[in-house]
């Protein structure tokens, strides 16, 4: 093992959890990752958005986790996830103005360990997708490690990078999610709500998946490779 693998293994230990959460975590540990070589149309994509108390994954806390799924080329409206997470103290007023999660909701949300266990159950081992995925990836990884003892390292796909890969000319002009949504005529019914943001990102992902097939990328593996290659070439 490398030192990084040893570090991850050290944190991957059971925490003090209630029985239902232990069962969910155990089932997730026992499950196997999906086949990245399956056609795009047969892949379940879990689009994720988190609301947090700030932008520092090492210091700030999760306020809510929202997610929705794309299956069989369609956004499954009945396959979604939204959990506000209980806080010991309410976040600052200027923070509430951004995410819209009021003090009462913060204090009465779900226990974080239970919320994380339920998210593992919902997402399974499917590919996770987000716009600027690194932030959501780090927030969830830290919370999973510290609260329920899970080394959370799923496959992630970054929609922002994928836009750059598939529409490079337009990506020189467009940098923000709202602008991509407007460009493709995707209606924003709400923003800065975890599940609403996930739905917006999922609609954009549907456009990208169709374009990827037109460009000959027929599997999740090909998309992940294209994103990684593009990332390193830009660096």
In short:
The chain is α/β, with parallel strands linked by helices and 235 residues long. The chain has helices at residues 3-11, 19-30, 93-99, 103-107, 112-123, 133-148, 159-166, 168-171, 177-183, 194-214, 220-234; strands at 45-52, 62-71, 74-84, 127-130, 156-158.
Please tell me about this protein's structure.
The protein is an alpha/beta fold and 235 residues long. It has one domain (40-234): Ribonuclease H-like superfamily/Ribonuclease H (Nucleotidyltransferase, domain 5), CATH 3.30.420.10. The chain has helices at residues 3-11, 19-30, 93-99, 103-107, 112-123, 133-148, 159-166, 168-171, 177-183, 194-214, 220-234; strands at residues 45-52, 62-71, 74-84, 127-130, 156-158. Strands 3-2-1-4-5 form a five-stranded mixed beta sheet, sandwiched between helices. A hairpin with a 2-residue loop joins strand 2 (62-71) and strand 3. Helix 2 (19-30) packs parallel to helix 5 (112-123). The model is unreliable at 1-14 (pLDDT under 50).
What order do the helices and strands come in, and which of them pair?
Blueprint: H1 3-11, H2 19-30, E1 45-52, E2 62-71, E3 74-84, H3 93-99, H4 103-107, H5 112-123, E4 127-130, H6 133-148, E5 156-158, H7 159-166, H8 168-171, H9 177-183, H10 194-214, H11 220-234
Parallel strand pairs: 1-4, 4-5
Antiparallel strand pairs: 1-2, 2-3
Helix pairs in contact: 2-5, 5-6, 7-10, 7-11
Instruction: Characterize the largest beta sheet: strand count, sense, and whether it forms a barrel.
Output: 5 strands, mixed
Structural class: alpha/beta
The succession of helices and strands, N to C, reads HHEEEHHHEHEHHHHH
Number of helices: 11
Taking all Cα atoms into account, the compactness measure Rg is 18 Å
Low-pLDDT ranges: 1-14
Give the CA-based shape: globular
Mean pLDDT: 88
Strand order of the largest sheet: 3-2-1-4-5
Strand content: 15-25%
The portion of residues assigned to helices is 40-55%
The quaternary structure here is: single chain
CATH architecture designation: 2-Layer Sandwich
Distance between the termini: 28 Å
The structural domain count equals 1
* CATH fold-level label: Nucleotidyltransferase, domain 5
CATH class: Alpha Beta
CATH superfamily heading: Ribonuclease H-like superfamily/Ribonuclease H
